[in-house]
Amino acid sequence: MCIIFFKFDPRPASKNAYRLILAANRDEFYHRPSKLADFWGNDNEILSGLDMEEGREGGTWLGISTRGKLGALTNYLQPQLDRDTRGRGELVTNFLTTDMDSLSYLKKVSQEGHLYNGFNLIAADLSTAKGDVICYYGNRGEPEPIVLTPGTYGLSNALLETPWKKLCFGKQLFLKAVKQSEALPKDALVAQLLDVLNNEEAQLPDPAIEDQGQEYIQSILSKYAAVCVRGLDYGTRTNTIILVDANGQVTFTERSMLDKDPSRWETNTHEFMLQS
């Protein structure tokens, strides 16, 4: 389970406005090995965390490159997982390392969607010169990817903008922070967005989650009903904030759980200019 909120405006009217504001949670088993976000790739041009689970090494859930490619993934809540499918994390890694544009890449992925368990994939090309393009494809939805119009979006473990209560609740909190973004210092905006991602208020009952997850018992679904998921051995392990300003300055902040302990966290920030 994961959740992503993002707002984008390729050509903001104000020089103090952000072209992209993204806030995301990665929910995973606490014991699943992974690396904290850092630069990698041929010229250290890609910034992401990396999955280190045996057989899934090198996949990622969220990443951005200095060339302006951004990829983000959520799993689709489904009753039965096929253990013989390909690792979904490679979908983001492959995009970050390819020369294909976002729409062409998602069209290719749409032809191979049956090889994976359910997923949602955001792919973006961020270009100061050409303007930003953000696309979406989910292999449990329409057969073709779509190019998103500028605006604010929410994505959890159903298709884009599916109105799960926690998604609607979190999106309102996200919008409240975004409305203050031009007036706030960057550090204060990041702090507010982290507060959004760490909200543990369960949004119950939620017929939409219950309908999609009807094969699960109620107590399990109830754990997933907050923006921040907190269980004994599974829950929100990583908060990520990505800000891209009008000039192409990227601020990537990651807050990560340490040593499988929900009481211990480490926050790191990386900044760079988009090469495009």
Automatic annotation (TrEMBL):
Pfam families: TANGO2. One of its GO terms (cellular component) is mitochondrion. One of its GO terms (biological process) is protein secretion. This is Transport and golgi organization 2 homolog. It comes from Cavia porcellus.
